[in-house]
Amino acid sequence: MALLEVKNLGISFGGLQAVQGLNMSIESGHLYGLIGPNGAGKTTAFNMLTGMYTPTEGIITFDGVNITGKGPEYISKAGIARTFQNIRLFNAMSVLDNVKVGMHNRVTYSMLDGVLRTKKYRDKEAEMNEKARRLLDVFGIGDKADYAASQLPYGQQRKLEICRALASDPKLLLLDEPAAGMNPNETQELMETVRKVRDDFGIAILLIEHDMKFVMGICEEITVLEYGKTIAHGDPQTVSNDPEVIAAYLGGDDED
Ligand SMILES: Nc1ncnc2c1ncn2[C@@H]1O[C@H](COP(=O)(O)OP(=O)(O)OP(=O)(O)O)[C@@H](O)[C@H]1O
After folding, report:
1. Which end of the chain is more exposed for a tag (fewer CB within 10 A), N or C?
2. What sequence ranges are listed for the domain ABC transporter (predicted)?
3. DSSP string across the chain
């Protein structure tokens, strides 16, 4: 069985069926893209996979366990982490501390250990600092560890968000428009980093992205949504030559 199995997943908000009959199978180590015009249901699908929305139909199986309807805390502990479309960093906190926030689901010391600054607390903190610095180094921002998050340029803030998500040791990383707002150089650099993350950490990555060069350049498998329904699925070449996909993008009124 694949790491993530999504079967007939759907959700409706009142009369609006935002996602319908979604099927996806994602193996460990795969780079998978979820694309489609604005309002197609991509972020809604992420919200169901991460427990923020409860599906009205279908089953999500992760690592052999049915996680349908479980809450975000449970799903994060199970090994799914995500970033958001809009940057959600703690601006006044240091870059290092922002990464450590991502480790909260792995903290093993008690509040009392923290207050008393016990050896257990100090050892764990040292381990977390080292791990956070290693992650920042992967993204080439290790030298900015002590800066406030808000002092980083935009492209590096997006990288910091990915670092924070990785800090929870996920088996599956969901990236919601990681290249949004980036210039072509930053986007190119991010493509290489995302590939490196997959290779070095051996995790599966599912990403939503409007930048077609980015998606077609790194994803091995792609599902295309339009009005909540899957209109195409396959490798980048198959999907980009699909007449329904071409029509959906050319006919849309968005920026794609
Ligand atoms: N909580 C909600 N309540 C009501 N409708 C919602 C809710 N969340 C999403 N929707 C609707 O579901 C549809 C899909 O939205 P969604 O944000 O998933 O699209 P998207 O493909 O991620 O679009 P974009 O590319 O613009 O981010 C939209 O019509 C949206 O208005």
Report:
1. N
2. 4-252
3. --SEEEEEEEEEETTEEEEEEEEEEE-TT-EEEEE-STTSSHHHHHHHHTTSS--SEEEEEETTEE-TT--HHHHHHHTEEE--SS----TTSBHHHHHHHTTGGG--S-HHHHHHT-HHHHHHHHHHHHHHHHHHHHTT-GGGTTSBGGGS-HHHHHHHHHHHHHTT--SEEEEESTTTT--HHHHHHHHHHHHHHHHHH--EEEEE-S-HHHHHHH-SEEEEEETTEEEEEESHHHHHT-HHHHHHHHH--S--
**100 and 73 in a common domain:** no
- CA 175 to ligand 1 center in whole angstroms: 16
* Nearest protein Cα to ligand 1, atom 26: 38
Quick check: CB of 241 below 6 Å from ligand 1? no
Counting atoms of ligand 1 from 1, which one is nearest the CA of 228?
Answer: 14
User: What ipTM score was computed for the predicted complex, to two decimals?
Assistant: 0.95
Q: Is the CB of 13 under 6 A from ligand 1?
A: yes
Residue 42 CB–ligand 1 contact under 6 Å: yes
Domains of the chain: total = 2
pTM: 0.89
Instruction: Give the model confidence (pLDDT) of 69-89 as tens digits.
Output: 999 999 999 999 999 887 788
